[in-house]
Design brief:
Order of helices and strands: HHEEEHHHHHHHH
Largest sheet: 3 strands, antiparallel
Number of helices: 10
Structural class: mainly alpha
Strand content: 5-15%
Number of domains: 2
Helix content: 55-70%
Length: 234
Protein backbone atom coordinates (compact mmCIF):
# COMPACT_ATOMS: atom_id res chain seq x y z
CA UNK A 1 0.00 0.00 0.00
CA UNK A 2 1.33 3.44 -0.92
CA UNK A 3 2.24 5.97 1.73
CA UNK A 4 -0.83 8.23 2.26
CA UNK A 5 1.34 11.15 3.36
CA UNK A 6 3.35 11.06 0.12
CA UNK A 7 0.15 10.96 -1.91
CA UNK A 8 -1.39 13.93 -0.10
CA UNK A 9 1.83 15.95 -0.18
CA UNK A 10 2.28 15.37 -3.92
CA UNK A 11 -1.32 16.31 -4.69
CA UNK A 12 -1.35 19.46 -2.58
CA UNK A 13 2.08 20.69 -3.68
CA UNK A 14 1.31 20.14 -7.36
CA UNK A 15 -2.32 21.24 -7.59
CA UNK A 16 -3.20 23.53 -4.69
CA UNK A 17 -0.59 26.26 -4.47
CA UNK A 18 -3.21 28.94 -3.74
CA UNK A 19 -4.47 27.07 -0.69
CA UNK A 20 -0.95 26.49 0.62
CA UNK A 21 -0.22 30.20 0.29
CA UNK A 22 -3.43 31.01 2.15
CA UNK A 23 -2.55 28.61 4.97
CA UNK A 24 0.76 30.39 5.51
CA UNK A 25 -0.80 33.86 5.35
CA UNK A 26 -3.68 33.15 7.75
CA UNK A 27 -2.44 30.46 10.11
CA UNK A 28 1.18 31.60 9.99
CA UNK A 29 0.25 35.31 10.07
CA UNK A 30 2.66 35.94 7.21
CA UNK A 31 2.68 39.13 5.16
CA UNK A 32 1.56 38.05 1.69
CA UNK A 33 3.55 40.85 0.05
CA UNK A 34 6.76 39.30 1.42
CA UNK A 35 5.84 35.72 0.60
CA UNK A 36 7.47 34.02 -2.39
CA UNK A 37 4.29 32.36 -3.56
CA UNK A 38 5.61 29.29 -5.36
CA UNK A 39 7.96 28.47 -2.49
CA UNK A 40 5.24 27.15 -0.16
CA UNK A 41 5.31 23.36 0.12
CA UNK A 42 4.03 20.72 2.52
CA UNK A 43 6.94 18.74 3.94
CA UNK A 44 5.15 16.61 6.53
CA UNK A 45 1.58 15.55 7.13
CA UNK A 46 -0.09 12.97 9.38
CA UNK A 47 -3.30 12.65 11.43
CA UNK A 48 -1.86 14.96 14.09
CA UNK A 49 -0.32 17.87 12.23
CA UNK A 50 0.89 19.47 9.01
CA UNK A 51 4.24 21.15 8.35
CA UNK A 52 4.81 23.68 5.58
CA UNK A 53 8.00 25.37 4.48
CA UNK A 54 8.22 28.65 2.58
CA UNK A 55 10.51 31.51 1.70
CA UNK A 56 10.21 35.23 2.28
CA UNK A 57 11.68 37.97 0.15
CA UNK A 58 15.08 39.25 1.31
CA UNK A 59 15.47 36.27 3.66
CA UNK A 60 17.69 33.37 2.66
CA UNK A 61 16.55 31.09 5.46
CA UNK A 62 13.65 28.75 4.74
CA UNK A 63 10.71 29.35 7.09
CA UNK A 64 8.57 26.60 8.62
CA UNK A 65 4.99 26.50 9.83
CA UNK A 66 3.97 23.52 11.99
CA UNK A 67 0.25 23.37 12.61
CA UNK A 68 -1.72 20.90 14.70
CA UNK A 69 -5.09 20.11 13.18
CA UNK A 70 -6.81 21.05 16.43
CA UNK A 71 -5.33 24.54 16.13
CA UNK A 72 -6.38 25.01 12.50
CA UNK A 73 -9.61 26.95 12.83
CA UNK A 74 -12.20 26.63 10.06
CA UNK A 75 -15.96 26.99 9.76
CA UNK A 76 -16.87 23.28 9.72
CA UNK A 77 -14.94 22.37 12.89
CA UNK A 78 -13.66 19.10 11.43
CA UNK A 79 -11.77 16.86 13.83
CA UNK A 80 -8.96 14.82 12.29
CA UNK A 81 -8.83 11.35 13.81
CA UNK A 82 -7.46 9.40 10.84
CA UNK A 83 -6.04 9.79 7.35
CA UNK A 84 -9.54 9.79 5.89
CA UNK A 85 -10.37 13.05 7.71
CA UNK A 86 -7.45 15.02 6.30
CA UNK A 87 -8.91 15.78 2.85
CA UNK A 88 -12.05 17.34 4.31
CA UNK A 89 -9.98 19.30 6.82
CA UNK A 90 -7.69 20.71 4.13
CA UNK A 91 -10.68 21.77 2.00
CA UNK A 92 -12.38 23.44 4.97
CA UNK A 93 -9.12 25.20 5.86
CA UNK A 94 -8.75 26.44 2.27
CA UNK A 95 -12.27 27.91 2.29
CA UNK A 96 -11.72 29.52 5.68
CA UNK A 97 -8.37 31.09 4.77
CA UNK A 98 -9.60 32.38 1.40
CA UNK A 99 -12.64 33.90 3.08
CA UNK A 100 -10.48 35.59 5.72
CA UNK A 101 -8.43 37.14 2.92
CA UNK A 102 -11.55 38.23 1.05
CA UNK A 103 -10.64 36.00 -1.88
CA UNK A 104 -12.09 33.06 -3.77
CA UNK A 105 -10.68 29.58 -3.31
CA UNK A 106 -9.97 29.16 -7.03
CA UNK A 107 -8.14 31.39 -9.50
CA UNK A 108 -9.94 32.75 -12.56
CA UNK A 109 -7.79 32.03 -15.63
CA UNK A 110 -10.48 32.00 -18.33
CA UNK A 111 -11.47 34.87 -20.61
CA UNK A 112 -14.88 34.50 -22.24
CA UNK A 113 -15.80 36.63 -25.23
CA UNK A 114 -19.30 37.47 -26.47
CA UNK A 115 -21.54 34.76 -27.90
CA UNK A 116 -24.90 34.73 -29.65
CA UNK A 117 -26.02 32.35 -26.90
CA UNK A 118 -24.47 34.34 -24.06
CA UNK A 119 -26.13 36.82 -21.69
CA UNK A 120 -27.17 40.12 -23.30
CA UNK A 121 -25.89 38.80 -26.64
CA UNK A 122 -27.31 41.63 -28.74
CA UNK A 123 -25.89 44.30 -26.44
CA UNK A 124 -22.47 42.62 -26.56
CA UNK A 125 -22.23 42.00 -30.28
CA UNK A 126 -23.62 45.34 -31.46
CA UNK A 127 -20.87 47.24 -29.67
CA UNK A 128 -18.11 45.92 -31.95
CA UNK A 129 -19.44 47.42 -35.22
CA UNK A 130 -20.57 50.46 -33.24
CA UNK A 131 -17.01 51.08 -32.01
CA UNK A 132 -15.82 50.73 -35.61
CA UNK A 133 -18.43 53.25 -36.73
CA UNK A 134 -18.13 55.91 -34.02
CA UNK A 135 -14.48 56.95 -34.61
CA UNK A 136 -15.21 57.24 -38.35
CA UNK A 137 -18.16 59.50 -37.67
CA UNK A 138 -16.17 61.52 -35.17
CA UNK A 139 -13.58 62.12 -37.90
CA UNK A 140 -16.18 62.78 -40.62
CA UNK A 141 -19.82 62.88 -39.45
CA UNK A 142 -21.17 62.47 -43.01
CA UNK A 143 -19.03 59.54 -44.14
CA UNK A 144 -21.76 56.90 -43.79
CA UNK A 145 -24.47 59.16 -45.22
CA UNK A 146 -22.35 59.77 -48.31
CA UNK A 147 -21.72 56.04 -48.67
CA UNK A 148 -25.47 55.37 -48.72
CA UNK A 149 -26.07 58.23 -51.14
CA UNK A 150 -23.31 57.25 -53.58
CA UNK A 151 -23.70 53.46 -53.57
CA UNK A 152 -26.56 52.07 -55.67
CA UNK A 153 -27.26 49.03 -53.49
CA UNK A 154 -27.02 50.93 -50.19
CA UNK A 155 -29.25 53.64 -51.62
CA UNK A 156 -31.89 51.06 -52.54
CA UNK A 157 -31.71 49.51 -49.05
CA UNK A 158 -32.16 52.91 -47.43
CA UNK A 159 -35.46 53.35 -49.26
CA UNK A 160 -36.97 50.56 -47.15
CA UNK A 161 -35.91 52.06 -43.83
CA UNK A 162 -38.27 54.34 -41.89
CA UNK A 163 -37.30 58.01 -41.68
CA UNK A 164 -37.07 57.69 -37.88
CA UNK A 165 -33.97 55.49 -38.33
CA UNK A 166 -32.19 58.23 -40.27
CA UNK A 167 -33.33 60.89 -37.82
CA UNK A 168 -31.97 58.87 -34.89
CA UNK A 169 -28.73 58.12 -36.73
CA UNK A 170 -28.21 61.76 -37.66
CA UNK A 171 -28.90 62.98 -34.12
CA UNK A 172 -26.81 60.38 -32.25
CA UNK A 173 -24.10 59.18 -34.64
CA UNK A 174 -23.48 62.35 -36.61
CA UNK A 175 -24.43 65.33 -34.48
CA UNK A 176 -23.46 64.00 -31.02
CA UNK A 177 -21.06 61.11 -31.73
CA UNK A 178 -18.19 62.70 -29.77
CA UNK A 179 -20.41 62.99 -26.70
CA UNK A 180 -21.54 59.39 -27.17
CA UNK A 181 -17.94 58.14 -27.30
CA UNK A 182 -17.08 60.10 -24.15
CA UNK A 183 -20.17 58.74 -22.36
CA UNK A 184 -19.28 55.15 -23.26
CA UNK A 185 -15.68 55.57 -22.14
CA UNK A 186 -16.64 57.17 -18.82
CA UNK A 187 -19.42 54.65 -18.17
CA UNK A 188 -17.27 51.64 -18.97
CA UNK A 189 -14.38 52.94 -16.88
CA UNK A 190 -16.76 53.30 -13.92
CA UNK A 191 -17.89 49.69 -14.44
CA UNK A 192 -14.28 48.51 -14.52
CA UNK A 193 -13.20 50.40 -11.39
CA UNK A 194 -16.22 49.61 -9.22
CA UNK A 195 -17.38 46.21 -10.49
CA UNK A 196 -15.07 44.34 -12.88
CA UNK A 197 -11.81 45.04 -11.05
CA UNK A 198 -13.10 43.88 -7.61
CA UNK A 199 -14.46 40.64 -9.11
CA UNK A 200 -11.16 39.90 -10.85
CA UNK A 201 -9.20 40.76 -7.73
CA UNK A 202 -11.35 38.50 -5.55
CA UNK A 203 -10.91 35.63 -7.98
CA UNK A 204 -7.15 36.18 -8.25
CA UNK A 205 -7.09 36.66 -12.01
CA UNK A 206 -3.53 36.99 -13.37
CA UNK A 207 -2.53 40.32 -14.90
CA UNK A 208 -2.85 39.16 -18.51
CA UNK A 209 -6.34 37.81 -17.80
CA UNK A 210 -7.37 41.05 -16.11
CA UNK A 211 -6.18 43.14 -19.06
CA UNK A 212 -8.26 41.06 -21.49
CA UNK A 213 -11.38 41.39 -19.34
CA UNK A 214 -10.82 45.15 -19.03
CA UNK A 215 -10.52 45.45 -22.81
CA UNK A 216 -13.75 43.50 -23.32
CA UNK A 217 -15.44 45.70 -20.73
CA UNK A 218 -14.28 48.89 -22.46
CA UNK A 219 -15.86 47.67 -25.68
CA UNK A 220 -19.04 45.97 -24.49
CA UNK A 221 -19.94 47.42 -21.11
CA UNK A 222 -22.26 45.61 -18.70
CA UNK A 223 -22.61 42.28 -20.61
CA UNK A 224 -19.03 41.53 -19.56
CA UNK A 225 -20.12 41.69 -15.91
CA UNK A 226 -22.87 39.16 -16.61
CA UNK A 227 -20.36 36.73 -18.13
CA UNK A 228 -17.95 37.27 -15.25
CA UNK A 229 -20.64 36.54 -12.69
CA UNK A 230 -21.60 33.34 -14.52
CA UNK A 231 -17.98 32.19 -14.58
CA UNK A 232 -17.32 32.96 -10.93
CA UNK A 233 -20.56 31.84 -9.30
CA UNK A 234 -20.19 29.05 -6.75
Amino acid sequence: MSDPSARIISHMNNDHQLSLNDYVVIYGQTDFEKLIEDSVQITEIDPEHIVLEFKLQNLAKVQNLALYWSDAQEYENITVKSWSDIKGKLIAMAKYCADKRGLAVKKLTKVEGPSILGPAAFESLRMYPQWALMPLNAYDPNIISRAFANDFLLNKVSCFLPTSVFAFYHYVFEKHVSKLIAAYIIGHLIEIVFFTRPILKKHRAPTNVRVKWYLLNMIEGFPVLLRLKNLTKD
